[in-house]
Amino acid sequence: MRALYPGSFDPLTLGHLDLIERGCRLFGEVVVAVLQNPGKTPAFSLEQRLAQIEASTAHLSGVRVTSFDGLTVRCAETIGADLILRGLRAMSDFEYELQIAHTNRSLQPQIETVFLATSAHHSFLSSSVVKEVARFGGRVSHMVPEVVAQDLARLFNLPFPPEQR
Ligand code: ADP
Fold first, then answer.
1. What is the pLDDT of residues 47-106, one digit of tens each?
2. Nearest-CA neighbor of 140 among 108, 162, 165?
3. Residues paired with residue 34 on neighbouring β-strands, in sequence order
């Protein structure tokens, strides 16, 4: 089966990566699709986010990385996905995710949304928390892949590796 894993990934965290790895084991193929959202100004450009995901998933043979704008279900149709994969961290994610899943199903009933519960030790992770910690010089090596930690240090003008701070 082919799963579409859509998101902003601004930037990719180890929580996202965990979901991608587990998605690969379950479905065989995961297409990670970075959303180009004209309503949001991302910290990282689309090219940077694609490069971060490509470098971090190079060890996984079932992963493809792409970008999209517009409707997620249209992206799913274009790539021939059987399902949309999303992660659930806590109750706070649930309402929002359920609303999107119902909307997508009303638009394209053939494509199911499948939720994976986040691994417990990644459940506190979000892209915004990571950016907040990095902005103030905190260590993020346990939250993001190394390539992302490097990009964050560059973004906030911090020395890398962090031991040099
Ligand atoms: P979006 O802006 O579409 O919510 P995100 O990049 O924030 O994009 O998240 C993409 C998907 O990854 C969402 O389903 C989200 O719930 C999930 N996700 C986010 N953080 C984690 C995490 N730490 N562990 C597992 N899944 C996560």
1. 999 999 999 999 999 999 999 999 999 999 999 999 999 999 988 889 999 999 999 999
2. 162
3. 7, 67
For ligand 1, is residue 131 a contact (CB within 6 Å)?
no
Q: What radius of gyration, in Å, describes the C-alpha atoms of the chain?
A: 16
* Tokens (6 digits) for 78: 């274009």
Q: Which atom of ligand 1 is nearest to the CA of 125?
A: 23
What is the chain's length? 165
Which numbered atom of ligand 1 lies nearest the CA of 88? 16
Structure tokens at 136: 């103030």
Which residue in the list 86, 122, 127, 131 is annotated as catalytic?
A: 127
This prediction has a pTM of: 0.94
Q: What are phi and psi of 118, to 5 degrees?
A: -60, 145
